[in-house]
Amino acid sequence: METESLRIFCAVAAELSITQAAARLGRAPSNVTTRIQQLEADLGAGLFVRTAKRIALSPTGEQFLAYAERLLALEDEARQVVSNGASGGVLRIGSMESTAASRLPGVLAAFHVDHPATRLVLRTGPSRQLVEQVRTGALDCAFAALPDDSAELIEMGLQSMPVWVEELLLLLPPGESDVEDARQVRARSLAAFPQGCTYRSLAEHRLGISGDPAWRVQEMNSYHAMIACVAAGACLTVLPASVLALGGAPASLKTLPLGRLDTCLVWRDGFATPAFRAFAERLGVGLEPR
């Protein structure tokens, strides 16, 4: 099983198109097809389901993808450590949508200026999923909002350090400007990210959603969509003040404070490639000497 075959497989899995994966890799489509067929023969299993016009990952392919990404990440980690960072390498960062929007642009831009040879890969998602991806090696580190569960992180073989403190707000729909407490809201619909989002869990607790069958949660994948729904009077949402400050919400909408929560950098115990060490240093996060 060659490393290059794994890279080709991951590219095809991401694009779900031989032609697009070939263009991304700078290879001929026929070469990509051959390498995938050779990999499937080596594994003795089909990795893709092929139809006349499209391809999709098979159940085996979905399972193998996680291993392929981890193998490629381990190879890059070894190259970085052995070369003492001369290879640049890849740093795979996970982040909540809010952090990616309000906190990371300047940090990532400055890091790229200082370390242009390091390729940054950013993925977004809810905190719980991000932490799990760090644990399994799918991500090198992640920015996540976590309740006080340091013991659980230690059991998972993870370390964390607070980087930013976010002021969380409830954004109320028009017509609820008289509301002074979260329990007084009349709307019974919350726009939020999917399960695993710590902000959502906090809002559900403060609003008493789990004990009230009248409540429903509309799952969305962007703050733009959530704010639009609130402005339309359909629901309320929870978001950091730093995101609200970016604009996009009518100034007439009222907010209520929901509390403060740390955004932490999470990484695997002992993980300290040169790229990650440099990134942590820029954030003011100290790592234990290896």
From TrEMBL:
InterPro entries in the cross-refs: LysR_HTH_N, LysR_subst-bd, WH-like_DNA-bd_sf, WH_DNA-bd_sf
Transmembrane segments: none
Keywords: DNA-binding, Transcription, Transcription regulation
Secretion signal span: none
Pfam families assigned to the protein according to its UniProt record, in alphabetical order: HTH_1, LysR_substrate
PROSITE patterns: HTH_LYSR
Sequence ranges assigned to domain HTH lysR-type in this UniProt record: 1-58
MF annotations from Gene Ontology: DNA-binding transcription factor activity; transcription cis-regulatory region binding
Similarity-based family: Belongs to the LysR transcriptional regulatory family.
Protein name per UniProt: LysR family transcriptional regulator
Organism: Massilia aurea
Organism placement in taxonomy: Bacteria, Pseudomonadati, Pseudomonadota, Betaproteobacteria, Burkholderiales
